[in-house]
Amino acid sequence: MIQRDPAEATTGFPRRRPRRLRMKPAVRDLVRETSLQVDDLIYPLFVCPGERVRKEVPSMPGVYNLSVDELVEECRAVADLGIPGVILFGLPESKDEAGSGAWIEDGIVQRALRAIKAALGDRLLLIADTCLCEYTSHGHCGVLSAEGQVANDPTLELLARTALSQARAGADVIAPSDMMDGRVGVIRETLDAHGMTDLPILAYAVKYASAFYGPFRDAAQGAPKFGDRKSHQMDPGNAREALEEARQDLLEGADVLMVKPAMPYLDVLASLRRTFSVPLAAYQVSGEYAMIRAAALNGWLDEERIIWEAALAIKRAGADFYLTYFAPRLARMIQRR
């Protein structure tokens, strides 16, 4: 039986009134459980061949494919906003069956890494996405077997070569996104064997086979030419499996775990936060960005409020930091508050 405060019997109303802590902005700020900081943000960028190229992605208004020279200037502006880091995705000059553009010394991302380091030094943390899908002629995340399936084990060596090449070019963090079994372990062993024991791995540990990636494939020109990626990316109906994927990556040497996409999988992010004490990241992916932008451009939503609320949701669910195409907008919003 619930025990009532004697005062309630007299007044007919509870003494505790939660609205007392909501009446004034200063009080709301004082008791807020989750807050946003510029240090929480990582900005995804797409680098392409050419010079003075700044080509808007049709399905992602405000997001651009940038040549190396334009990318350097964009990174300078990002650093000036106080955003701590960027993650780079490459559009190579040409593609082949093995995705060799991912690991060659003069690859597009490798050139970008060297150029940013030369211009900005350590002002920005440079994260290299490590996958083959943007570089293979068939658009899949690894080499193909004779049967046309993504071959897990032969792909691992190529991912390790890519990670090593990116590290030598100046990457501060390696971020394998391919979802091949065992790739974190092979990459860790390769980096360690070349004296890079201090280089962290941000594992796309929980990456779902999601329709929310559609605009990204437009931006990175990495859509598969046939089939899909359900053989290696996770089934959207599975949550317990996410814990096993994350645990396996940690055992193989991952330093940070990431959930992708973010908002449709906040429950999974929260579950990882309850289970593991390691740093967690989340990726607010292209489809999440495109939906918010499209609704805002049509006048259906208050864009800044939606951007802020979505970011709060990701942080509240357990992300220590998050990757978002809204990073510059969020940085300016945070600085105004």
Would you kindly provide a written description of the structure presented here, covering whatever features stand out?
Strand 8, helix 9 and strand 9 (280-284) form a beta-alpha-beta unit. This protein has helices spanning 6-11, 25-31, 68-80, 108-120, 152-169, 183-193, 214-220, 240-252, 266-275, 286-297, 303-317, 327-336, and strands spanning 41-48, 54-56, 64-67, 85-90, 125-130, 173-176, 202-207, 256-260, 280-284, 321-324. The model has no long low-confidence stretch (mean pLDDT 93). The chain has a single domain, classed as Aldolase class I (TIM Barrel, Alpha-Beta Barrel), CATH 3.20.20. The chain has 12 helices and 10 strands. Helices cover 40% and strands 15% of the residues. The longest helix is centred in the middle third of the chain and has 18 residues, at 152-169.
